[in-house]
Amino acid sequence: xxxxxxxxxxxxxSRTPRRDLVPCIxxxxxxxxxxxxxxxxxxxxxxxxxFKALLRCLSYGTHGSLVHHIRFNTAEITFTQDEFDTLAxxxxxxxxxxxxxxxxxxxxxxxxxxxxxxxxxxxxLPGWHADKPSEWMMALGPQLxxxxxxxxxxxxxxxxxxxxxxxxxxxxxxxTIKDFGRLPTNTPLLEALSQMCPNIxxxxxxxxxxxEEDLDFDAVQPAxxxxxxxxxxxxxxxxxxxxxxxxxxxxxxxTYLSFKIMDDYIDGNYEDPTSTLYTLVKNLTDLESLxxxxxxxxxxxxxxxxxxxxxxxxxxxxxSPRTHRISSFSWFCPCNPFSLTSGHPYxxxxxxxxxxxxxxxxxxxNNRDGWLLDWxxxxxxxxxxxxxxxxxxxxxxxxxxxxxxxxxxxxxxFIRMPKLLYLTLRNFSMTGNEDPxxxxxxxxxxxxxxxxxxSLHLCHVSASPSNTLEPHTLDMTAILDFxxxxxxxxxxxxxxxxxxxxxxxxxxxxxxxxxFVPEGIQCNQVRLILDGKSHxxxxxxxxxxxxxxxxxxxxxxxIHLSLPQQHYS
Length: 569
Prior knowledge:
The chain is α/β, with parallel strands linked by helices.
């Protein structure tokens, strides 16, 4: 082992989970030197106890200088001013501090000065300093690569604050503007932002304000560096077609577009809109990833669908041969805006279109989506179905409008989607103890001995035997055995009497369990056995997780399951 060059050891350790680095540190001096840098480079904190343990480790030597990235994975972590001072003093080379935590006994003036003085190399601004741009803008602004500020702070920085003529936030590539109701994002702010931050590639903001009446479209300067745009809130009452035209002119090089419409009602006449969703995406010739969230639209006759020109959009999306480059697409809407007599054998996405996608998400409405239901239901025939979607990496389907008799069949998914890595299932029922390996043997396809799935999210899924809809035990053991790379499991409002995971040699990066319904399983009701030792007060519970290790075990599944595009590229 001592003969290996450091470069080879670095390659090995780059593929080693952090939990397995400790033995590497104690292997030899050479391995210690390489592994210790890898161990401290990126720190993820899931509890206050872990934060305290980090401070103790940093107090023993000079390892704090090796820490470059810290992420707080839960907002429940709180610490005092002195504890923050200690963290800042011991980690002088920190580049990113991600997430917002709370400080007790905070001295605002001392806090801001220490922040700028200690963390001179930051490229990602921690959330708790976002309200003091006057304290850090001159010192840290030019070196930041990512930033999240509310729209009022951005307006102050870009439009009000007197900055030197040559001042620029030229390193910023990722910008998120939050709207807290004080000053909505408007076109003057977006124009000023593109001038001060000329290299933004990823931009997120809300559209909650009507357009400026005097804006000259011919004077709009395209932001050619922006390739990813997320509209996290889009109020359709404030000039939908006008905003679509502005976005088309301002961001013509988009490869990623995601937006969420917030309301059913549009005030205005949209019989002949000049610019719609259809005209926008049709003219974005580089667009590869498109995600439409209409979860708050409940009326199938809503004017929103006319303003979006949804029928023309559907035809454009499914035209053969393809006239677009879409490889990642999702459509989530709690009502079906399409006429049942339109003659299309699908609602939004056809099988031919879906077969060309690497990421796909959709709400299922009725039997017209039968081609999609055949993906996820139990195979009805032998031998194994030959139709596969071998490009699909991410799948997120919502069966809220289907009868619970539509049982999802994991074996069918594994057969048809051999490269699937990220799977989210919402509002389905499933057999509580499915065994894919045994099923494949019975189907004369024992050659398939595993599947590469990495992440499984179950939301409002009911575990029940085939002859009843009553909640039953959900035993995930056989599915996990069939998916050896699966290390993230999120269960939200899953209806089952008990949860069983018996994989004593498996390690998981995250297991999150949360339920707001009486029939569901709670995180604190599960008996947790790690490496043969009990780590849970629920010692008498019939729900058991028996595995080697879990990096993060919590009740925050709802946070992840509320983001259907989390793995979309």
